[in-house]
Write a sequence for this structure.
């Protein structure tokens, strides 16, 4: 029966395993001193999944990786060992933090990665270029607004659990495991005054996470943009101009409501 369930519903098995672990580990963890019950029990990510997470997120020595609920620190320690990535892990359970520090020392990467005891919801994650997590669907959803407020372009990688209707930019399947990857999109929704060479027009952009649609008021007509794409702060879309030619707009979305690229600039009105 177990193998049938495993074949039919790997995701349910993962959630179930974490939930059962939560109950059985709860009492033990309380004795070991977490200041409050854990939001997620300790279930380490298998090393092949750690490797895939780092690969999918394109982690390099230029990154600063933060693992939320770091367990024995294997994700930051692997990134530091393989790529020289700096970062830290946070865990509510001091036992895990001790193990993670020992793991870093064993791998001689203590100068690159640190581990702190704390609540992931109270941790300053603004320095991250990559966030990794193996939490639970409800915890991912609670975390989502914090993640979406990070700098556009910050990469997020999650073992097994998604973020609801924020579609992943990449999904990698491994046997019974899944790795999800997102890039934090800039906030571009609004109405803009655009200057593009001799053309001036208003552009209304709508946004659902990284998906962008919109309409330009151009040559007295409403023209829908096509192929709207937002990757971090990189925005691109196509627009059919009054001469019937399709023009590609590629640019960057900055804070303060400005978007622009080669040959065009827009400001929010
Ligand atoms: C499923 S384990 C993942 C461990 C590690 N990231 C990995 O992938 O191997 C989740 C971890 O989150 C920690 N945790 C649970 N609730 C937390 C919270 N509110 N803040 C920080 N850590 C938490 C647990 O102690 C546990 O080590």
């Amino acid at each position: 029966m177990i193998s049938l369930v495993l074949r039919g519903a790997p995701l349910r098995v993962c959630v179930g395993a974490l939930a059962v672990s939560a109950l059985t580990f709860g009492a033990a963890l309380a004795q070991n001193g977490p200041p409050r019950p854990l939001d997620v029990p300790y279930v380490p990510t298998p090393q092949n999944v750690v490797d895939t997470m780092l690969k999918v997120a394109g982690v390099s020595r230029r990154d600063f990786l933060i693992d939320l609920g770091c367990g024995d620190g294997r994700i930051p320690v692997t990134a530091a060992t393989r790529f020289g990535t700096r970062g830290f892990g946070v865990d509510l359970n001091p036992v895990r933090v001790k193990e993670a520090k020992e793991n870093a020392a064993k791998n001689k990467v203590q100068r690159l990665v640190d581990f702190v005891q704390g609540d992931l919801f109270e941790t300053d994650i603004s320095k991250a270029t990559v966030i990794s997590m193996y939490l639970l669907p409800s915890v991912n959803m609670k975390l989502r607004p914090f993640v979406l407020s990070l700098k556009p372009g910050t990469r997020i990688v999650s073992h097994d659990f998604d973020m609801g209707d924020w579609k992943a930019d990449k999904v990698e399947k491994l046997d019974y495991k899944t790795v999800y990857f997102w890039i934090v999109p800039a906030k571009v929704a609004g109405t803009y005054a655009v200057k593009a060479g001799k053309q001036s027009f208003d552009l209304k952009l709508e946004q659902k996470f990284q998906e962008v649609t919109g309409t330009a008021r151009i040559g007295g007509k409403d023209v829908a943009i096509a192929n709207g794409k937002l990757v971090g702060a990189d925005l691109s879309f196509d627009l059919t101009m009054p001469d019937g030619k399709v023009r590609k707009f590629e640019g960057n979305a900055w804070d303060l409501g400005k978007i622009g690229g080669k040959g065009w600039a827009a400001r929010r009105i």
Observations:
- The chain has two domains: 9-183, 190-268.
- The radius of gyration is 22 Å.
- Confidence is low (pLDDT under 50) at residues 1-17, 19-30.
